[in-house]
UniProtKB/TrEMBL annotation:
Keywords: ATP synthesis, Cell membrane, CF(1), Hydrogen ion transport, Ion transport, Membrane, Transport. F(1)F(0) ATP synthase produces ATP from ADP in the presence of a proton or sodium gradient. F-type ATPases consist of two structural domains, F(1) containing the extramembraneous catalytic core and F(0) containing the membrane proton channel, linked together by a central stalk and a peripheral stalk. During catalysis, ATP synthesis in the catalytic domain of F(1) is coupled via a rotary mechanism of the central stalk subunits to proton translocation. This protein is part of the stalk that links CF(0) to CF(1). It either transmits conformational changes from CF(0) to CF(1) or is implicated in proton conduction. Its main location: membrane. It is a peripheral membrane protein. The gene is atpH. This is ATP synthase subunit delta. Belongs to the ATPase delta chain family. It holds the Pfam family OSCP. NCBIfam families: ATP_synt_delta, PRK05758.2-4. It is found in: Cell membrane; Membrane. It comes from Terribacillus halophilus. GO terms for molecular function: proton-transporting ATP synthase activity, rotational mechanism. GO terms for cellular component: plasma membrane; proton-transporting ATP synthase complex.
Length: 181
């Protein structure tokens, strides 16, 4: 719980700075890039986490790796490095995205389905959940999950809406067991 609160503070501080300087879109994109690097380049994080390497060398790597980016991103990464939380880059990016979405009146949804959804189906799901959540729009990230059998499972933030056939069968089974007792 404490880690979540700390990560949220970094994201909120960065968001506030970006808003004050009117560069929220730029910082969001750069933070997404930093998240991708942290998730896809294990050597990068290993280097930054190595206790035998001096802090100055690690900061120099951040400076050169993100030289094309904003000073706000480089400074945030250095702050995370100083605090021993450099592995929290993806979480900071996620919280920043949530703050951005709240400000824009939008939401991010991960939709799990047995097959890839068509654009029309994505639009229908997005419109349905935008209305349900009272949001301007919902952005859909479709993931294939063959274990669902059919239907959809939608995750928005920490909430999961499960209308999958697998879940419906589980509920029927539970009801039958409860009735037979």
């Amino acid at each position: 719980m404490r880690d979540v609160t700390i990560v949220k503070r970094y994201a909120e501080a960065l968001f506030e700075v970006a808003e004050n300087r009117d560069i929220v879109e730029i910082v969001k994109a750069e933070l997404h890039t930093a998240k991708q690097v942290a998730q896809n380049d294990a050597a990068f994080l290993r280097y930054l986490s190595e206790p035998k390497i001096s802090l100055d060398k690690k900061k120099a790597l951040i400076e050169t790796s993100f030289a094309a980016g904003s000073i706000e991103i480089r400074n945030t990464l250095k702050l995370l490095l100083d605090a021993g939380r450099i592995s929290s880059i993806p979480q900071v990016a996620d919280v920043f995205q949530t703050l951005y979405d709240e400000k824009q009146g939008t939401a991010q949804a991960t939709v799990y389905s047995v097959r890839a959804l068509s654009e029309a189906e994505k639009k229908t799901v997005a419109a349905t959940f935008a209305k349900k959540l009272d949001k301007k729009a919902v952005s859909i990230d479709n993931k294939i999950d063959p274990t669902l059998l059919g239907g959809l499972k939608v995750r928005i933030g920490n909430t999961i809406y499960d209308s999958s056939i697998k879940n419906q069968l589980t509920r029927i089974e539970r009801n039958l067991v409860n009735v037979s007792k």
